[in-house]
Write a structure and sequence with these properties.
Number of helices: 4
Radius of gyration: 17 Å
Shape: elongated
Strand order of the largest sheet: 1-2
Structural class: mainly alpha
Number of domains: 1
Largest sheet: 2 strands, antiparallel
Strand content: under 5%
Length: about 120
């Protein structure tokens, strides 16, 4: 299911529940930006599409969230006594989620600016 218009993007993000981190991957799969090339974002001599870059970034944020959840579960169950590592994992995940949210806001702002342009 590819997102076809701006209202679908807004609805997707409005319905996003931070308790369900796996939804991040689903959101990444809904974007279809395969033709928008971003030069210099891949390995040397390789370019990635914007969709690939976005999906990879969302997957990384999802991985950080899962790491934080695992660290909290280990601390709560007594498997780990290291509170510092748990807090670091939670803060990394929090910062990554906030950054992803800011990128989302910038994309929406850019879309709105484009829609205001006279053709």
């Amino acid at each position: 299911m590819a997102i076809q218009n701006f209202s679908q993007i807004q609805n997707t993000f409005k319905n996003y529940n931070v308790d369900n981190w796996a939804k991040s991957v689903e959101i990444g799969k809904q974007f279809d930006f395969r033709n928008a090339e971003m030069p210099g974002m891949g390995e040397a001599g390789e370019s990635k599409s914007f969709g690939d870059f976005l999906a990879e970034s969302i997957s990384k944020v999802n991985g950080l969230q899962q790491d934080a959840n695992t660290a909290m579960q280990r601390l709560a169950s007594g498997d780990s006594q290291n509170l510092h590592e748990t807090l670091l994992a939670v803060e990394r995940a929090d910062i990554a989620l906030k950054q992803m949210n800011q990128v989302r806001n910038k994309v929406i702002d850019a879309y709105r600016e484009i829609m205001k342009m006279q053709v």
